[in-house]
């Protein structure tokens, strides 16, 4: 298995990958054309923030299974394209949070006490004590935008300096503050009341230019801005104008809309201090993210579970062992349903009943969709892209978790709504791992979803089963197991046979020639 590393990664992770038997190529500084031309040879690629994994590169990545980001931000990866191609994208959350928070502290303090400017003045042999009078942090208000791993570490540190902290994070609740003396507020309130504003949100379409002209205009006069999260969250042109017009006292930037940002007009402003994306550049953080990503890549490539994927629910080996019979049953149910379909699917309703609801049912749903879609599509479908492919094809999905146990302690029920009606199946596990289909449409059955399965709807009359088995016997087709079901005596019944060899279409026609046979179909799982 080949792994490509495109940026400087601490040696520990590289050694770890090699020790696990993976072939590792380190090629730092590739152009995107060069990366495109070699990517097809690799099953995994490890990047930091400088490598852009675009749709064009993903289109060429025919063997790629995992994109590993040694760090947090995945804004340099076309997530949609990766997901669509079934490629897992994973990062290493938390591995560099302390370093990024400490860097933010260095920026806040440097900004308050003009340290970089004073250092420059000193180097030109000046002693300008009056020019660099700063401000205390004590009793000032810091507004934190994005109170995740880095944001909350920054909060803890500035609280120790006696600052007041307000935060804006639409995805965090008061109870998650875990005793932190932080007041959650709206963005507008934060902008109006803060003396310092520090950004710690991810760059996504919703946060691109979250802070633009109108937000700068809401801020307190003399505010200082710190961005150690991602360039692009602040509109740099609007920041330039706000500083130039004296509305903003200064800014400390570690990240930029384009990196490196040497053409930015901000460089001419003395009150802006810059670092070249150094937030995570400590020995400790780099070692940690390098080992973390190596470990995750090894597990993913060796089928031992997926951690910290941003486009797939995480699962570990222990959970995988428990859940895999359900994953396998769901895929078989999907495959069986696909073969029973008569017209395009409009909606899939999946109901999970029982203790299985404690599992990560997202993986089971992904499997079911894989089984359902794979036979009808050219492309490779897996757990990562199944949902995206279904969505793209206009198939609606409803997942329902229920604790209303009826005949089975655990049960998966799937209903496919199509233009020509509904097709449904229910499946469960016998003795923890033996898969069984226990209902086809409204007929109760007991079918092993494996190999050649002959499904026949017939009139519930003497002779129907003899007619089918007689024709099969004539052709030497052996029946491994048989199940029958009906709703009422003398009505429509179902006969399901597991066969050692498939029934040819001409033989199916022969079986169907009898008026007591209503429908017959051969499926293979
Ligand atoms: P995180 O996922 O733990 O936290 C991000 C927080 O932002 C979350 O709590 C989320 O709810 C919040 N958020 C999402 N959308 C938001 C929005 N529209 N408005 C406000 N908040 C929003 O991530 P983290 O590890 O704390 O990293 C934070 C940022 O710092 C990321 O952009 C990451 O890439 C960056 N980072 C930079 C460096 C560096 O070298 N400069 C190092 C580490 C992390
Ligand atoms: C991150 O998102 O983790 C940072 O940008 C750190 C990095 O990649 O150097």
From TrEMBL:
GO BP: L-serine biosynthetic process
PROSITE patterns reported in the protein's UniProt record: ACT, D_2_HYDROXYACID_DH_1, D_2_HYDROXYACID_DH_3
Residue ranges of every copy of the ACT domain listed in the record: 453-525
EC number in record: 1.1.1.95
Pathway linked to the protein: Amino-acid biosynthesis; L-serine biosynthesis; L-serine from 3-phospho-D-glycerate: step 1/3
Top-level taxon in the UniProt lineage: Bacteria
Family: Belongs to the D-isomer specific 2-hydroxyacid dehydrogenase family.
Reactions the enzyme catalyzes: (R)-2-hydroxyglutarate + NAD(+) = 2-oxoglutarate + NADH + H(+); (2R)-3-phosphoglycerate + NAD(+) = 3-phosphooxypyruvate + NADH + H(+)
Name listed for the protein in its UniProt record: D-3-phosphoglycerate dehydrogenase
Function: Catalyzes the reversible oxidation of 3-phospho-D-glycerate to 3-phosphonooxypyruvate, the first step of the phosphorylated L-serine biosynthesis pathway. Also catalyzes the reversible oxidation of 2-hydroxyglutarate to 2-oxoglutarate.
InterPro entries: ACT-like_dom_sf, ACT_dom, ASB_dom_sf, D-2-hydroxyacid_DH, D-isomer_2_OHA_DH_cat_dom, D-isomer_DH_CS, D-isomer_DH_CS1, D-isomer_DH_NAD-bd
Gene Ontology molecular function, alphabetical: NAD binding; phosphoglycerate dehydrogenase activity
Alphabetical UniProt keywords: Amino-acid biosynthesis, NAD, Oxidoreductase, Serine biosynthesis
Pfam families reported for this sequence: 2-Hacid_dh (PF00389), 2-Hacid_dh_C (PF02826), ACT (PF01842), PGDH_inter (PF19304)
């Amino acid at each position: 298995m080949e792994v490509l590393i495109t940026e400087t990664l601490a040696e520990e992770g590289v050694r770890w990958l090699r020790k696990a038997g993976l072939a590792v190529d380190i090629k730092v500084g590739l152009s995107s054309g060069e990366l495109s031309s070699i990517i097809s040879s690799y099953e995994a690629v490890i990047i930091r923030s400088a490598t852009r994994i675009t749709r064009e590169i993903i289109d060429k990545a025919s063997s790629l299974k995992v994109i590993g980001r040694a760090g947090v931000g995945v804004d340099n990866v076309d997530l949609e394209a990766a997901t669509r191609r079934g490629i897992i994208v994973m990062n290493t959350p938390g591995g560099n949070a302390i370093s990024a928070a400490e860097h933010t502290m260095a920026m806040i303090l440097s900004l308050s006490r003009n340290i970089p400017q004073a250092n420059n003045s000193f180097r030109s042999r000046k002693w300008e004590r009056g020019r660099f009078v700063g401000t205390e942090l004590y009793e000032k208000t810091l507004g934190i935008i994005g109170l995740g791993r880095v944001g909350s570490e920054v909060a803890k540190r500035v609280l120790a300096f006696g600052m007041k902290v307000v935060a804006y994070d639409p995805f965090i609740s008061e109870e998650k503050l875990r005793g932190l003396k932080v007041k959650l507020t709206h963005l507008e309130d934060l902008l109006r009341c803060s003396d310092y504003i520090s950004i710690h949100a991810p760059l996504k379409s919703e946060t691109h230019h979250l802070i633009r002209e109108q937000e700068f205009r809401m801020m307190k006069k003399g505010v200082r801005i710190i961005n150690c999260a991602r360039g692009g969250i602040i509109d740099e042109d609007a920041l330039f104008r706000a500083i130039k017009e004296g509305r903003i006292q200064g800014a400390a930037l570690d990240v930029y809309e384009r990196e490196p940002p040497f053409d930015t007009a901000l460089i001419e402003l003395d009150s802006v201090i810059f670092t070249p994306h150094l937030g995570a550049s400590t020995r400790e953080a780099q070692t940690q993210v390098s080992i973390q990503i190596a470990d995750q890549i090894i597990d993913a490539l060796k089928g031992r579970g997926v951690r910290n994927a941003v486009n797939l629910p995480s699962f570990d080996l222990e959970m995988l062992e428990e859940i895999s019979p359900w994953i396998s049953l769901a895929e078989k149910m999907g495959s069986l349903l696909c073969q029973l379909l008569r017209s395009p699917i409009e909606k899939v309703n999946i109901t999970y009943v029982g203790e299985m609801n404690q599992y990560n049912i997202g993986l089971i749903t992904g499997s079911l969709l894989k089984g359902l879609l794979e036979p009808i599509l050219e492309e490779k479908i897996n757990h990562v892209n199944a949902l995206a492919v279904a969505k793209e094809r206009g198939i609606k999905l409803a997942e329902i978790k229920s604790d209303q146990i009826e005949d089975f302690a655990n049960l998966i029920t799937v209903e496919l709504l199509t233009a020509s009606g509904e097709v449904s199946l229910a499946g469960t596990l016998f003795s923890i791992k033996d898969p069984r289909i226990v209902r086809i449409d409204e007929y109760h059955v007991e079918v092993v979803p494996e190999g050649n399965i002959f499904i026949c709807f017939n009139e519930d009359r003497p002779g129907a089963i003899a007619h089918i088995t007689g024709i099969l016997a004539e052709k030497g087709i052996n029946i491994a197991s048989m199940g029958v079901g009906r709703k009422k005596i003398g009505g429509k019944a179902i006969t399901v046979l597991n066969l050692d060899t498939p029934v040819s279409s001409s033989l199916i026609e022969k079986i169907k020639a009898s008026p007591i046979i209503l429908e017959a179909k051969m499926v293979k799982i």
